[in-house]
């Protein structure tokens, strides 16, 4: 079985049937997470030598769309492990890899990727979480908010300021922080509009004593490390958004064929059929942009603006397609427990996290001017 078929059947058998319950209960999907580890869906592009699948970015975006077609919160977990796993593989010492990668990729350890702070969202240069040298280790103090998996993570990759003079230009470093360490508090668990099975919350670090080997990569190289996985991360979220669009198209098409009004299926009204046509066009166009971005990244070509275009287009398209699906479902589209209603909520965050639409437009316009 090829990769697409394997993930598609995993999504059909394990994810889609659980999505409604996961949305309602907002619980961490532990059994599906474990299953993803067993299937090798964590660390798609992480080299085989580091325990990953050694796949391409094109493989990764395929997996993300298929998982998200099942339920976006599940794809989020794949995306998170992909980023953290890629950074560990690229910048980790042999010891750090041995400590974290096998369990992370097997789905027996959970990670978080902690950048955002109360005063630093789009503007990461404004971070104030501070790591100071303490003997041969570090003392970490600060607060992170809106962090995926903060309530359930075994460890977090945390970006902190190590030199306030230099900040983004050599003054930020990445640390591997075990969440059981004294001084680490999981601040709260957010109640969200959508993607409700994704566990999102905050961390407070109060003089957390970190060993010297908690530093990932060189001191001062943290911001560059974040940038090195940004484009892949954005393509992953674009593919996640496009999985939501495909699910919206399928549920709307099914309803349009079966629902009868004025003596015929509503699909026979041109207004409804054209709306489906626009949904399909949005999905297909987003997929081409995402694939183009993946091909550029796989070929080590300059992919920045293309990945931003893919993220911008696919995420905004997912808001259009899910809104159309709700409209085609009529009153049913507004009722909890109906897939279109959930997809509409799940899509909304995709234009915000992993860089807002406005940030993507900044990047694209800079590449033009
Ligand atoms: C469910 C969820 C999960 C998340 N997961 C994580 C995670 O795992 N790890 C993590 O570190 N973060 C995470 N985040 C944080 C997310 O990345 C940020 O919310 C996002 O980057 C936007 O930052 P902000 O919320 O501070 O908004 P702000 O940066 O305050 O932006 C507010 C508005 O101003 C606009 N804006 C800002 N600057 C400009 C500009 N220069 N030009 C034009 N418009 C501008 C923005 O586009 C936006 O519309 C998550 C957030 C959510 C809600």
From TrEMBL:
It holds the Pfam family Acyl-CoA_dh_M. Coiled coil: none annotated. Keywords: FAD, Flavoprotein, Oxidoreductase. Its cofactor is FAD. Residues 112-208 form the Acyl-CoA oxidase/dehydrogenase middle domain. Residues 220-369 form the Acyl-CoA dehydrogenase/oxidase C-terminal domain. The keyword Transmembrane does not apply. GO terms for molecular function: acyl-CoA dehydrogenase activity; flavin adenine dinucleotide binding. Residues 3-107 form the Acyl-CoA dehydrogenase/oxidase N-terminal domain. Gene3D superfamilies: Acyl-CoA dehydrogenase/oxidase, N-terminal domain, Butyryl-CoA Dehydrogenase, subunit A, domain 2, Butyryl-CoA Dehydrogenase, subunit A, domain 3. InterPro entries: Acyl-CoA_DH_CS, Acyl-CoA_Oxase/DH_mid-dom, Acyl-CoA_Oxase/DH_mid-dom_sf, AcylCo_DH-like_C, AcylCo_DH/oxidase_C, AcylCoA_DH/ox_N, AcylCoA_DH/ox_N_sf, AcylCoA_DH/oxidase_NM_dom_sf. The keyword ATP-binding does not apply. Belongs to the acyl-CoA dehydrogenase family. This is Acyl-CoA dehydrogenase. It comes from Actinomadura darangshiensis.
């Amino acid at each position: 079985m090829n990769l697409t078929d394997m993930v598609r059947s995993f999504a059909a058998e394990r994810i889609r049937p659980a999505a409604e319950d996961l949305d309602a209960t907002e619980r961490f999907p532990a059994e599906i997470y474990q299953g993803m580890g067993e299937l090798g869906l964590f660390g798609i592009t992480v080299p085989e030598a580091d325990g990953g699948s050694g796949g391409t970015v094109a493989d990764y975006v395929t997996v993300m769309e298929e998982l998200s077609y099942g339920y976006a919160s599940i794809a989020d977990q794949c995306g998170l492990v992909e980023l953290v796993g890629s950074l560990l593989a690229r910048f980790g010492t042999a010891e750090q890899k041995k400590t974290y990668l096998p369990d992370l990729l097997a789905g027996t350890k959970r990670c978080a990727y902690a950048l955002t702070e109360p005063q630093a969202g789009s503007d990461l240069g404004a971070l104030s979480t501070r790591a100071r040298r303490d003997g041969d280790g570090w003392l970490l103090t600060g607060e992170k908010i809106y962090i995926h998996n903060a309530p359930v993570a075994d460890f977090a990759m945390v970006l902190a300021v190590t030199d306030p003079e230099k900040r983004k230009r050599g003054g930020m470093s990445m640390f591997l922080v075990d969440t059981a360490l004294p001084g680490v508090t999981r601040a709260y668990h957010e109640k969200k509009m959508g993607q409700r099975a994704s566990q999102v919350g905050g961390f407070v670090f109060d003089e957390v004593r970190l060993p010297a080997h908690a530093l990932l990569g060189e001191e001062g190289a943290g911001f560059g490390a974040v940038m090195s996985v940004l484009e892949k991360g954005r393509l992953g979220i674009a593919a996640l958004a496009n999985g939501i669009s495909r699910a919206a198209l399928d549920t709307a098409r099914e309803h349009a064929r079966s629902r009868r009004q004025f003596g015929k299926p509503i699909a026979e009204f041109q207004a409804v059929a054209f709306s489906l046509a626009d949904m399909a066009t949005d999905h297909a166009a987003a997929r081409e942009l995402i694939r183009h971005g993946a091909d550029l990244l796989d070929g080590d070509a300059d992919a920045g603006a293309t990945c931003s275009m893919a993220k911008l287009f696919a995420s905004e398209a997912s808001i259009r397609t899910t809104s159309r699906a709700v409209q085609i479902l009529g009153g049913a589209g507004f009722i909890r427990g109906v897939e279109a209603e959930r997809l509409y909520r799940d899509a909304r965050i995709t234009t915000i996290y992993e860089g807002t639409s406005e940030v993507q437009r900044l990047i694209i316009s800079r590449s033009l001017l």
